[in-house]
From TrEMBL:
Residues 113-221 form the Fe2OG dioxygenase domain. Keywords: Dioxygenase, Iron, Metal-binding, Oxidoreductase, Vitamin C. It comes from Marinobacter segnicrescens. GO terms for molecular function: ferrous iron binding; L-ascorbic acid binding; peptidyl-proline dioxygenase activity. PROSITE patterns: FE2OG_OXY. Its cofactor is L-ascorbate. The lineage of its organism: Bacteria, Pseudomonadati, Pseudomonadota, Gammaproteobacteria, Pseudomonadales. The keyword Iron-sulfur does not apply. This is SM-20-related protein. GO terms for biological process: cellular response to hypoxia. Transmembrane segments: none annotated.
Amino acid sequence: MTIAFADLPTSHNDAPDGAVVEETWLDTIAADLSERGWLNLDVRDYLGRALLAELRQEVEILEKTAAMERAGVGRGSDFTRDRSVRRDRIAWLNGQTPAQQQLFGFLEQVRVGLNRRLFLGLQRFEAHYASYQPGDFYRRHVDSFRGRASRVVSLVLYLNEGWRPEDGGELQVFNRESPEEICGRVQPDEGRVALFMSEEVPHEVLPAARTRHSIACWFRQDVVPVPLTGV
Ligand SMILES: O=C(O)CCC(=O)C(=O)O
Ligand SMILES: [Fe+2]
């Protein structure tokens, strides 16, 4: 499901932890995004531990229900749930719980901040929870097909407390200029975020030794999604 901002409650910035994102912070992430195509950062100060814990509780509850579905790859008639490519399960956020509203308030500030600096014309975002069980992975891919102008910037927020290097499950990021070159690994620690250009930066999720929770978001240039079938 995709969220239209106009439909969202406007009260999210009043929430106790609804921090206002600093302009200088937005300057830095916009500069890194345009220079390197990706960055990773810690957003615990912006979101707060309480909100991160609430989001983690939501995914832990969803995981016990049928709401969490096996993820697929591709669009329209190419859509497949190929377990050799990705093995996570996902549930779309609908922005209706207080925790999701607060997160959406933050994402909206990032959207507006990036538009002001990089003129990307980001119209909206969509976000899903993802759950990887031990051994699950997502093979190397990019998040958008070139020229589709759909998903433009990807943001992944990790929700895992006390992640250790031996737990694996890093996001491995490849250089957009020379895609065989690994240019970074991000540990899926609570409050850590990976931000990258959706069309340009190949990445993969390495298998984890324990359950791995995240929220994957995409800032999109289209106002209305292209129909998923018949394209
Ligand atoms: O969870 C991650 O680190 C990245 C997930 C991802 O690449 C995706 O959902 O497209
Ligand atoms: Fe991805």
